[in-house]
């Protein structure tokens, strides 16, 4: 009996010791052990602008199912130096800041608090309209025309006096003139302007109006900034309309800030 009692006590104390050791291990690994956290692992750079005139923002993209890690990363913020007037090949420094008290509470040891990155991939501006790719110009034309078609009902309703019983309807939409607007100021992006003649039916009578569409951020990335395409009615003078002085109209509005260069399609280039 005494042997069994001793044996049971040994088993009991052995099990108790094992359980305590396990609890200590769990407490150490999950609550006491210092964990190194790479605060740059969730950092993403977002560039805006073009080579020699770009800006950058560093954002935190961390999404972790671990609530403690996510709570800590929610306090992480980044600063970038320099963050404007950037050019390809320039070295920028990203510095992370965080809640130090929370890091100590969770036994986190942030590492890679600073990081240097060489800027690359910024698009360059075109020197002139001759450098523009014809296939890309055709895509821009399609986007400009789509913009006019998408906005024509609103434009006609707001700009045209509708005296008759039936609503005014667009009949044709013709691109009359297209130009590359080369900015004189590095802070202003280059643009492409398209001047459209819109024919509409006004109670059986065909009338014309002109519509100007501007496509911003023209550079060798060959992307089309469709979100920021802008259009408005073009109020041309009778002389400009009668003599098709489309370039003069564009120059009247943009000549003080941009160099105006006509853009011709391939057939016009051949004829030219």
Protein traits:
about 270 residues; five-stranded antiparallel sheet; three-stranded antiparallel sheet; elongated
Give a concise summary.
The protein has 272 residues and is α+β, with helices and mostly antiparallel strands. It has helices spanning 2-32, 67-73, 100-105, 134-159, 238-242, 246-254, 266-271, and strands at residues 35-38, 43-48, 55-60, 77-81, 91-97, 108-111, 114-118, 169-183, 191-202, 205-215, 230-234, 258-262.
Describe this structure in words.
With 272 residues, this protein is an alpha+beta fold. The protein is built from seven helices and twelve strands. It has a five-stranded antiparallel sheet with strand order 11-10-9-8-12. Strand 9 and strand 10 form a beta hairpin. It is elongated and about 95 Å long.
Q: What is the β-strand count? A: 12
Bin the strand percentage: 25-35%
The level of helicity is: 25-40%
Question: Could you give the distance between the termini?
Answer: 116 Å
Overall residue-averaged pLDDT value: 85
**Rg, Å, rounded:** 33 Å
Task: Produce the secondary structure layout.
Blueprint: H1 2-32, E1 35-38, E2 43-48, E3 55-60, H2 67-73, E4 77-81, E5 91-97, H3 100-105, E6 108-111, E7 114-118, H4 134-159, E8 169-183, E9 191-202, E10 205-215, E11 230-234, H5 238-242, H6 246-254, E12 258-262, H7 266-271
Parallel strand pairs: 1-6
Antiparallel strand pairs: 2-3, 4-5, 5-7, 8-9, 8-12, 9-10, 10-11
